[in-house]
Design a protein that fits this description.
Pfam families: Sugar_tr. The chain has about 525 residues and is an all-alpha fold. The protein has helices at about 10-20, 30-35, 40-55, 55-65, 65-70, 85-95, 110-115, 140-145, 155-180, 185-200, 205-235, 240-245, 250-265, 270-280, 285-290, 295-300, 300-315, 325-330, 340-345, 350-375, 380-405, 410-430, 440-465, 470-495, 505-520; strands at about 75, 105, 125, 130. The longest helix is centred in the N-terminal third of the chain and has 28 residues, at about 155-180.
Amino acid sequence: MKSFFSHSSERNLQHYKEISKKNESKDPLDNITYKVIGDFGKWQFKIALLMALLKLPMAWYQLNILFLAPPQNFWCVKPKILSQYTDDEWRDICAPKIEEHPCLIFDPDILAIAPYMDRALIPLVPCQKFVYDTSIFSRTIISDWNLVCTRHWLIHFTQAVMMWGVVCGGILFPMCADRYGRKNPLMAGIVIQCVAGFLTSVVRQYWIFMISWFILAVAIGGLGVVSFVMSIEVVSGKWRTVIPILYQVPFGVGNAILAGLAYFLRDWRHLEFSLSVISSLFILYYFVMEESPLWLLATGQTQKAYEILEKAAKINGREHILKDMKHLFINQVQKQNTPGFMAFIKSKSMRKNTVLLSLNWFCTGLSFFTFSQYLGYVGSNIYLAILLSGLISIPGCLLCLIIITRFGRKTTVWVFQIISSFCFLIILLIPKEVFANDWPRLMVAGIGFAGLSGAVPALFLYSGELFPTLGRNAGVGGVTTFARIASMVAPGIVSLDEIFADLPLILLAFVSFCQLTLLLPLPETKGLPLPDTLEDV
C-alpha cells in the first residue's frame, strides 16, 4: 500500500499510474482530484478532522435536553396559613397518595381548619406555585418556566422543535451549499450556532427561548449535512468507506464532554453559555479551511480549484503531479443528467430497495433519537448514563469499521441492530435501583447505544452502494430524510413513559426487531461493482 503522505520516487509515480487506470472514477471531476492529490493524505486528513470535530456541538445541542429538562422532583409551595408545619410534614399531608393527581393538593384552607379531617371529604385543588428539588440540578428550564403538570408537554415540545429545526437545516443548507459552495454555508452555520447558542443561555421568556432554540437547531442540521459532504468530497477509494464511519466518533466524545460539563455546572444557563463559548472556537475554521475543489470544478471555477489542489498536492508530497494538472483540467467530461429521488420510486428496479431503505432509516432514526433522549431515565445517575453511552459508542463505530470491511454492509447493519434490540429487552429485565448507580442497566444501555452508533454509518454506506452513481446524493438524501422525520416523533415516544415507565423501551425493542425483517429482502453489496446509472441497476 502506498504511503498516505508521500510519493518520493519515479517508481512510485509509475505505480500510481497503473493503479489509477484500474480504479479510475466514473465521475470525471472526482477523477481529477484523485489524480492530483491521491486517495488520502495530510491535506485530506486535516479537512476530515476539522469536519468530524463539528460533530461535537451537534452532540451537545441535540442531546442537552437531558440536562436542560432532566427528571426533577417538585411539590407545592407551603401556604402561610400552614406555616407551623415543617417542609417534610407539609409535603406529607398536602398531596393525595394517588399517582393520577400529582399536581393536585388537598384544599389548604380546609386543612388549616381541620387538619385531621377524612381526606376523602377534602376537595383537591390545583397547585398554584411550585418548589423544585435542587439537590442534583440547581436550575433547569423546568424550574425556570414551571414546565410541570399542565405545562409538562412543553418539555417534549422543546426537543421536538430541536428536531424540526435539524430537519429544516438539513434541507436548507445543502441547497445553499450546492449554489454558494461548501465553505460559506459552513461558516454561516457556525456563526449562527454561536449567536443562537448565546441567546438561548440568557433569554428570560420561554417563547423567545424557543425561537433561538429553533434557529440553533437549523444551524446544527445544516452543519451536519455540509460537513459530512465536505469530508467525503476530499477523499477517494477505500477512504470513502472509512471516513464516513470515523466521522461519527466525535459524537460519542461529545456526549462524554456534555456529561462532564453538566456535572460540574449543574445550571442549564451556565451549561448553554459554556457550550456556546467552546463552539465559538469553530469560527477559526475560516482561516484554515478551503473550499471543496470538487464543487469548484463542478461549477466551472477551475482557477480556484487549481490553486487549492496545487496547495493540497504540495502538502501531500505529490509535486510530481503538478505539471500534468492543467492537462487534467482541460480534459473534463461533460456532466450527465442525474435522476431525482422520485425517479427511484417510479423505477421498477429501484422501487423495492428505495421503500425498504426508507423504512429502515425511519426505524433507525426512531431508535437512535428516542433512546438518546431516554438515557436519562435508564439509571439513577443521569451523568454516568450519558458519560458511559458516549464512551461506549466510540468502540461501536470502530467495530463497525472492522465488520463492514470483512463481512459486508447488510450483515453489519443486521449485527448492530440485533445488539441494540436485545439490549432494549435486557434493560427491561434488570430491576431499577437495586445495584449501585444502576450500573447493570447503564452498562447494557451503553452497549445498546454503541449498537445504534454502529448501525447509522453502516446503513449510510449500504444505502449509498444500493443507489447508482448518477443520483446517489438524491437517493441517499431522500431515504435519510425518513430518519429526520423519525427524530421529530422521538420526543412523543419518550413522553409515553408517563403512561407506563417501560413503554418507550418496549416500543423500541418492537421497532428494532421489525427492522430486522425489513433488511432481509435487500441485497448485499460487498464486493459488487457499483451501478453508474439507473439503467445499470
